[in-house]
From TrEMBL:
InterPro entries tied to this protein: AKR, LGALDH-like, NAD(P)_OxRdtase_dom_sf, NADP_OxRdtase_dom
Protein name: Oxidoreductase
CDD domains in the cross-refs: AKR_galDH
Domain NADP-dependent oxidoreductase: 16-298
Pfam families: Aldo_ket_red
Protein backbone atom coordinates (compact mmCIF):
# COMPACT_ATOMS: atom_id res chain seq x y z
CA UNK A 1 0.00 0.00 0.00
CA UNK A 2 1.25 3.46 -0.91
CA UNK A 3 0.41 6.59 1.06
CA UNK A 4 -0.03 10.18 -0.12
CA UNK A 5 -0.74 13.43 1.68
CA UNK A 6 -4.12 15.06 1.15
CA UNK A 7 -3.12 18.55 0.06
CA UNK A 8 -1.50 20.36 2.97
CA UNK A 9 -3.46 18.62 5.71
CA UNK A 10 -0.57 16.51 6.93
CA UNK A 11 -2.74 13.41 6.58
CA UNK A 12 -0.89 10.65 4.73
CA UNK A 13 -3.60 8.35 3.51
CA UNK A 14 -3.63 4.99 1.77
CA UNK A 15 -3.92 5.04 -2.01
CA UNK A 16 -7.10 3.00 -1.60
CA UNK A 17 -9.67 4.38 0.80
CA UNK A 18 -12.76 2.67 2.23
CA UNK A 19 -15.98 4.27 1.06
CA UNK A 20 -18.68 3.29 3.53
CA UNK A 21 -21.73 3.96 1.33
CA UNK A 22 -22.35 0.22 0.99
CA UNK A 23 -22.79 0.00 4.76
CA UNK A 24 -26.03 1.88 4.20
CA UNK A 25 -27.31 -0.72 1.76
CA UNK A 26 -27.02 1.80 -1.06
CA UNK A 27 -26.05 -0.66 -3.78
CA UNK A 28 -27.07 -4.05 -2.34
CA UNK A 29 -28.87 -5.44 0.67
CA UNK A 30 -26.64 -5.16 3.71
CA UNK A 31 -25.42 -8.02 5.85
CA UNK A 32 -24.38 -5.92 8.82
CA UNK A 33 -21.97 -8.36 10.44
CA UNK A 34 -20.19 -8.92 7.12
CA UNK A 35 -20.01 -5.17 6.51
CA UNK A 36 -18.39 -4.58 9.87
CA UNK A 37 -15.89 -7.32 9.12
CA UNK A 38 -15.08 -5.56 5.82
CA UNK A 39 -14.13 -2.45 7.81
CA UNK A 40 -11.87 -4.50 10.09
CA UNK A 41 -10.26 -6.15 7.06
CA UNK A 42 -9.61 -2.80 5.41
CA UNK A 43 -7.84 -1.41 8.47
CA UNK A 44 -5.85 -4.59 9.03
CA UNK A 45 -4.74 -4.49 5.38
CA UNK A 46 -3.29 -0.98 5.56
CA UNK A 47 -6.24 1.17 4.50
CA UNK A 48 -6.35 4.16 6.82
CA UNK A 49 -8.93 6.48 5.22
CA UNK A 50 -12.68 5.99 5.63
CA UNK A 51 -15.37 8.15 4.06
CA UNK A 52 -19.07 8.13 4.88
CA UNK A 53 -22.13 10.39 4.95
CA UNK A 54 -25.39 10.65 6.88
CA UNK A 55 -27.08 10.46 3.48
CA UNK A 56 -25.92 6.90 2.78
CA UNK A 57 -28.77 4.65 3.77
CA UNK A 58 -30.38 7.59 5.56
CA UNK A 59 -28.01 7.50 8.56
CA UNK A 60 -27.61 3.71 8.44
CA UNK A 61 -24.07 3.74 7.00
CA UNK A 62 -22.79 5.98 9.80
CA UNK A 63 -24.55 3.84 12.40
CA UNK A 64 -23.09 0.57 11.11
CA UNK A 65 -19.65 2.09 10.64
CA UNK A 66 -19.82 3.40 14.20
CA UNK A 67 -20.31 -0.14 15.47
CA UNK A 68 -17.05 -1.10 13.77
CA UNK A 69 -15.10 1.99 14.81
CA UNK A 70 -15.80 1.53 18.52
CA UNK A 71 -13.51 -1.50 18.35
CA UNK A 72 -10.73 0.17 16.35
CA UNK A 73 -8.11 2.46 17.88
CA UNK A 74 -8.68 6.05 16.74
CA UNK A 75 -5.09 6.51 15.58
CA UNK A 76 -5.51 3.69 13.05
CA UNK A 77 -7.66 5.68 10.64
CA UNK A 78 -8.67 9.08 9.29
CA UNK A 79 -12.41 9.64 9.12
CA UNK A 80 -14.36 11.81 6.70
CA UNK A 81 -18.10 12.46 6.67
CA UNK A 82 -20.43 15.06 5.18
CA UNK A 83 -23.16 17.62 5.75
CA UNK A 84 -25.90 19.14 3.62
CA UNK A 85 -27.49 16.11 1.97
CA UNK A 86 -29.82 13.86 3.93
CA UNK A 87 -32.93 11.79 3.42
CA UNK A 88 -35.63 9.84 5.19
CA UNK A 89 -38.38 7.54 4.02
CA UNK A 90 -36.71 7.18 0.60
CA UNK A 91 -36.82 10.93 -0.01
CA UNK A 92 -33.82 13.17 -0.61
CA UNK A 93 -33.54 16.28 1.53
CA UNK A 94 -30.98 19.06 1.52
CA UNK A 95 -30.15 21.67 4.14
CA UNK A 96 -26.93 23.69 3.91
CA UNK A 97 -27.81 26.21 6.63
CA UNK A 98 -25.25 26.92 9.34
CA UNK A 99 -27.64 25.69 12.03
CA UNK A 100 -28.31 22.37 10.34
CA UNK A 101 -24.74 21.56 9.31
CA UNK A 102 -23.42 22.36 12.78
CA UNK A 103 -25.99 20.07 14.40
CA UNK A 104 -25.30 17.45 11.73
CA UNK A 105 -21.61 17.24 12.65
CA UNK A 106 -22.39 16.43 16.28
CA UNK A 107 -25.09 13.93 15.28
CA UNK A 108 -22.64 12.17 12.94
CA UNK A 109 -19.97 11.95 15.61
CA UNK A 110 -22.46 10.33 17.98
CA UNK A 111 -23.45 7.73 15.38
CA UNK A 112 -19.79 7.12 14.50
CA UNK A 113 -18.62 6.80 18.13
CA UNK A 114 -15.87 9.43 17.71
CA UNK A 115 -15.15 12.75 19.38
CA UNK A 116 -13.68 14.52 16.34
CA UNK A 117 -13.70 14.24 12.56
CA UNK A 118 -10.61 14.43 10.37
CA UNK A 119 -12.49 15.91 7.39
CA UNK A 120 -15.97 17.37 7.19
CA UNK A 121 -17.29 17.83 3.66
CA UNK A 122 -20.12 19.85 2.19
CA UNK A 123 -21.92 17.10 0.30
CA UNK A 124 -22.89 17.36 -3.38
CA UNK A 125 -22.81 21.12 -3.67
CA UNK A 126 -24.55 21.06 -7.05
CA UNK A 127 -27.79 20.70 -5.08
CA UNK A 128 -27.03 23.78 -3.00
CA UNK A 129 -27.13 27.48 -3.61
CA UNK A 130 -23.39 27.88 -4.16
CA UNK A 131 -23.53 31.38 -2.71
CA UNK A 132 -24.92 29.88 0.52
CA UNK A 133 -22.09 27.34 0.55
CA UNK A 134 -19.58 30.18 0.32
CA UNK A 135 -21.27 32.62 2.69
CA UNK A 136 -22.85 30.34 5.30
CA UNK A 137 -22.06 26.63 5.10
CA UNK A 138 -18.27 26.77 4.89
CA UNK A 139 -17.91 29.51 7.56
CA UNK A 140 -19.94 27.34 9.95
CA UNK A 141 -17.60 24.41 9.34
CA UNK A 142 -14.51 26.59 9.69
CA UNK A 143 -15.85 27.66 13.09
CA UNK A 144 -16.05 24.00 14.10
CA UNK A 145 -12.49 23.58 12.90
CA UNK A 146 -11.38 26.49 15.07
CA UNK A 147 -13.10 24.81 18.01
CA UNK A 148 -11.25 21.54 17.33
CA UNK A 149 -14.39 19.55 16.53
CA UNK A 150 -13.20 18.89 12.99
CA UNK A 151 -9.63 18.93 11.71
CA UNK A 152 -10.13 19.88 8.06
CA UNK A 153 -12.85 21.13 5.72
CA UNK A 154 -13.69 19.93 2.21
CA UNK A 155 -16.35 19.95 -0.47
CA UNK A 156 -17.71 17.22 -2.74
CA UNK A 157 -19.46 17.19 -6.09
CA UNK A 158 -19.70 15.35 -9.38
CA UNK A 159 -19.30 18.60 -11.30
CA UNK A 160 -15.67 19.75 -11.14
CA UNK A 161 -16.61 23.24 -12.27
CA UNK A 162 -18.70 23.70 -9.11
CA UNK A 163 -15.75 22.75 -6.91
CA UNK A 164 -13.59 25.34 -8.66
CA UNK A 165 -16.29 28.00 -8.44
CA UNK A 166 -16.50 27.68 -4.67
CA UNK A 167 -12.73 27.52 -4.09
CA UNK A 168 -12.27 30.69 -6.14
CA UNK A 169 -14.67 32.57 -3.84
CA UNK A 170 -13.48 31.68 -0.36
CA UNK A 171 -10.31 32.67 1.52
CA UNK A 172 -7.32 30.53 0.61
CA UNK A 173 -7.10 27.50 2.86
CA UNK A 174 -10.82 27.36 3.60
CA UNK A 175 -11.32 24.35 1.34
CA UNK A 176 -8.54 21.88 2.11
CA UNK A 177 -9.77 18.91 0.08
CA UNK A 178 -12.19 17.99 -2.66
CA UNK A 179 -13.96 14.70 -3.24
CA UNK A 180 -14.93 14.04 -6.84
CA UNK A 181 -16.34 10.83 -8.28
CA UNK A 182 -16.52 9.08 -11.63
CA UNK A 183 -14.02 11.50 -13.18
CA UNK A 184 -10.80 9.55 -12.83
CA UNK A 185 -11.59 6.13 -14.20
CA UNK A 186 -11.20 4.19 -17.43
CA UNK A 187 -14.22 5.81 -19.06
CA UNK A 188 -13.68 9.40 -17.88
CA UNK A 189 -10.48 11.14 -16.73
CA UNK A 190 -11.75 14.73 -16.68
CA UNK A 191 -10.31 15.18 -13.18
CA UNK A 192 -6.83 15.22 -14.76
CA UNK A 193 -7.67 18.59 -16.32
CA UNK A 194 -8.12 20.09 -12.84
CA UNK A 195 -5.10 18.64 -11.05
CA UNK A 196 -2.88 21.68 -11.68
CA UNK A 197 -5.60 24.00 -10.40
CA UNK A 198 -6.21 22.09 -7.18
CA UNK A 199 -2.49 21.76 -6.50
CA UNK A 200 -1.94 25.48 -7.04
CA UNK A 201 -4.66 26.14 -4.46
CA UNK A 202 -3.13 23.66 -2.00
CA UNK A 203 -6.26 21.51 -2.16
CA UNK A 204 -5.96 17.74 -1.74
CA UNK A 205 -7.83 15.36 -4.02
CA UNK A 206 -9.96 12.38 -3.08
CA UNK A 207 -11.17 10.31 -6.02
CA UNK A 208 -14.18 8.04 -5.76
CA UNK A 209 -16.03 5.36 -7.68
CA UNK A 210 -13.24 3.75 -9.74
CA UNK A 211 -15.91 1.49 -11.27
CA UNK A 212 -18.01 4.55 -12.20
CA UNK A 213 -21.00 3.35 -10.17
CA UNK A 214 -21.14 0.09 -12.10
CA UNK A 215 -20.26 1.23 -15.61
CA UNK A 216 -16.92 -0.58 -15.43
CA UNK A 217 -18.18 -3.95 -14.26
CA UNK A 218 -19.17 -7.21 -15.87
CA UNK A 219 -22.44 -7.02 -13.95
CA UNK A 220 -23.35 -3.68 -15.50
CA UNK A 221 -25.12 -0.62 -14.17
CA UNK A 222 -28.13 -0.41 -11.87
CA UNK A 223 -31.39 0.88 -13.36
CA UNK A 224 -30.98 4.30 -11.74
CA UNK A 225 -27.56 5.02 -13.29
CA UNK A 226 -27.62 8.47 -14.93
CA UNK A 227 -25.14 7.76 -17.74
CA UNK A 228 -26.52 8.01 -21.29
CA UNK A 229 -27.29 4.79 -23.14
CA UNK A 230 -24.40 5.28 -25.57
CA UNK A 231 -21.84 5.35 -22.74
CA UNK A 232 -23.41 2.35 -21.01
CA UNK A 233 -23.22 0.37 -24.25
CA UNK A 234 -19.60 1.40 -24.85
CA UNK A 235 -18.57 0.30 -21.36
CA UNK A 236 -20.42 -3.00 -21.84
CA UNK A 237 -18.34 -3.62 -24.97
CA UNK A 238 -15.19 -2.77 -23.05
CA UNK A 239 -16.10 -5.20 -20.27
CA UNK A 240 -16.73 -7.95 -22.81
CA UNK A 241 -13.37 -7.26 -24.45
CA UNK A 242 -11.55 -7.55 -21.12
CA UNK A 243 -13.32 -10.84 -20.56
CA UNK A 244 -11.82 -12.21 -23.79
CA UNK A 245 -8.41 -11.26 -22.36
CA UNK A 246 -9.19 -13.12 -19.12
CA UNK A 247 -8.70 -9.86 -17.26
CA UNK A 248 -11.74 -8.53 -15.37
CA UNK A 249 -12.50 -4.93 -16.22
CA UNK A 250 -13.07 -4.28 -12.50
CA UNK A 251 -9.44 -5.12 -11.80
CA UNK A 252 -8.13 -2.92 -14.60
CA UNK A 253 -10.39 -0.07 -13.53
CA UNK A 254 -9.14 -0.26 -9.95
CA UNK A 255 -5.52 -0.26 -11.09
CA UNK A 256 -6.06 2.72 -13.36
CA UNK A 257 -7.78 4.84 -10.74
CA UNK A 258 -4.89 4.53 -8.25
CA UNK A 259 -2.17 4.97 -10.88
CA UNK A 260 -1.87 8.76 -10.52
CA UNK A 261 0.23 9.77 -7.52
CA UNK A 262 -1.22 13.30 -7.66
CA UNK A 263 -4.49 11.88 -6.34
CA UNK A 264 -4.20 11.17 -2.62
CA UNK A 265 -6.67 8.31 -2.38
CA UNK A 266 -9.35 6.51 -4.35
CA UNK A 267 -12.46 5.30 -2.55
CA UNK A 268 -14.12 1.97 -3.21
CA UNK A 269 -17.10 0.54 -1.36
CA UNK A 270 -17.96 -3.02 -0.41
CA UNK A 271 -19.46 -5.01 2.43
CA UNK A 272 -17.49 -8.11 1.47
CA UNK A 273 -14.14 -8.65 3.27
CA UNK A 274 -12.92 -10.77 0.36
CA UNK A 275 -13.50 -7.89 -2.06
CA UNK A 276 -11.36 -5.67 0.16
CA UNK A 277 -8.48 -8.14 -0.10
CA UNK A 278 -9.03 -8.61 -3.84
CA UNK A 279 -8.90 -4.88 -4.56
CA UNK A 280 -5.73 -4.46 -2.54
CA UNK A 281 -4.13 -7.40 -4.35
CA UNK A 282 -5.17 -5.83 -7.68
CA UNK A 283 -3.43 -2.52 -7.09
CA UNK A 284 -0.26 -4.29 -5.98
CA UNK A 285 0.09 -5.86 -9.44
CA UNK A 286 1.61 -3.92 -12.37
CA UNK A 287 -0.92 -2.31 -14.67
CA UNK A 288 -1.14 -3.36 -18.33
CA UNK A 289 -1.06 0.01 -20.10
CA UNK A 290 -1.56 -1.63 -23.50
CA UNK A 291 -4.84 -3.07 -22.28
CA UNK A 292 -5.79 0.30 -20.82
CA UNK A 293 -5.32 1.88 -24.24
CA UNK A 294 -7.33 -0.84 -25.95
CA UNK A 295 -10.20 -0.43 -23.52
CA UNK A 296 -10.21 3.35 -23.81
CA UNK A 297 -10.18 3.02 -27.60
CA UNK A 298 -13.29 0.85 -27.40
CA UNK A 299 -15.05 3.46 -25.27
CA UNK A 300 -13.76 6.06 -27.70
CA UNK A 301 -15.76 9.24 -28.17
CA UNK A 302 -18.07 8.30 -25.32
CA UNK A 303 -15.37 9.25 -22.83
CA UNK A 304 -16.24 12.37 -20.86
CA UNK A 305 -19.86 12.31 -21.99
CA UNK A 306 -21.62 14.67 -19.60
CA UNK A 307 -24.09 13.21 -17.13
CA UNK A 308 -25.58 14.62 -13.98
CA UNK A 309 -25.77 13.46 -10.40
CA UNK A 310 -28.92 11.89 -9.02
Amino acid sequence: MQYHEIGKTGMKVSSLGFGASSLGGVFHDLKEKQGIEAVFTAIESGINFIDVSPYYGYYKAETVLGKALKDIKRDKYYLSTKVGRYGENDKNTWDYSAKKVTASVYESMERLNVDYLDIINVHDIEFADLHQVVDETLPALVKLKEEGVVKHVGITDLQLENLKWVIDRVPEGTVESVLNFCHYCLCDDKLADFLDYFEQKGVGIVNASPLSMGLLTERGVPDWHPAPKSLIEACTRAAEYCKTKNFPIEKLAMQFSVSNDRIATTLFSTTNPENVKKNIDSINEPIDWDLVKEVRDIIGDQQRVSWSNT
